[in-house]
Amino acid sequence: MAIVTLQLAGVKSEPEGRPSACPYCGSTILQKWGKGQKPIRDTQVQRVEVHRYRCTSCGRTFRHYPAGVERADQSLRLQQLAAIAWALGLSLRSVAWIVGLFGICLCHMTVWRDVQTLAERVRQKVRKRRVRVLGLDGLLGEVRGEGRGTVVAVDMGTGEPVNLVEIDERDVEAVVAWLRPLVEEMGIQVLVTDDLATYKVIAERLELEHQVCDFHLMRWVGRALKGLEKELGEEYQGAIEEVRRIVREKPPDGGHQLERIWESIRPLWRRRKGPLEAVHRFRMLLVRLAENWESYTLFLKQEGVPRTNNRTEQAIGRWRVPSRSVRGFKSWEGLEAAFWVCNSKVA
Ligand SMILES: [Zn+2]
């Protein structure tokens, strides 16, 4: 069950303090240049005081607004409220109707603009950020009842979303082409993903370090070993138990320990009737674990690298649960905007 926390901007009725600098030339020597009233659309405040300033360097005048008010005739919190109500599943017209109950007149196209404005605000805020550790996860986004491959990228330092793109996560070329500029702009060094084989290739191609989500690892290894245990019987019990211990405890030389187990298990040719194929699968499992050992244990060596990809899944859940429970999206733009709006406040 996803819990959505609403944190709306406060709205003040008059500006606090002075503007720090001229928005045109950056000069800090400003003269007061009168004040006026501005009517706004908001749930509580009907009009606010706006101060004018004149820049002594470039001679231009500009307005200084109270907190929560900008050029638009809606307060910031009304814009946020409208956008979030839509993102949680109401139609544009329903949102317009609901704010109408509070005596505020918004047409449905204004609500759609509010959605896009808030989405863009979150996107802009994220764009300039440095992100060292990036979480990635793929899912199916639904537009007009049709599933579309979607990849979500999250800053593992803060849990905030960084990007959402219409790409199938198994398409290595497309994911690499999309990620490469982000890696450069944001200074990404580490990827955190589930154990899908393509992510290993993607990390190698981009020369990034890689942490495979430990939750996913433990789950698939646990299942595979349980199956093998049944098929292989007593004789292999000790080896299976040993693998289980290594994967759980993650000793620094775990990769070598796994290799030694692999060496100790001889492939069965025609020597006996036994479970030949299961032995082969056990050996392949050992190879896979030993080969990827570095990406299972990066979190033990590097600070700031999380053990799991939970934060990425949470960002997806914040958006996906409300949007899926109520309706699909009519357009990719709507799906994308809802993602940013749902993730607009991360505690
Ligand atoms: Zn100026």
Task: List its salient traits.
3 domains, binds zinc ion, 347 residues, three-stranded antiparallel β-sheet, elongated, five-stranded mixed β-sheet, single chain, Nucleotidyltransferase, domain 5, alpha/beta
Q: Which H/E pattern describes the elements? A: EEEHHHEEEHEHEHHHHHHH
- Beta-strand fraction estimate: 15-25%
Distance between the termini: 17 Å
Major β-sheet profile: 5 strands, mixed
CATH fold title of the largest domain: Nucleotidyltransferase, domain 5
Q: Can you list the ligands bound to this structure? A: zinc ion
DSSP summary, beta strand count: 8
Average pLDDT rating: 89
What is the count of helical runs? 12
| Count of folded domains | 3
Strand order of the biggest β-sheet: 6-5-4-7-8
At CATH's second level, what is the architecture of the largest domain?
A: 2-Layer Sandwich
CATH H-tier superfamily of the largest domain? Ribonuclease H-like superfamily/Ribonuclease H
What does the radius of gyration come to?
27 Å
Report the helical percentage: 40-55%
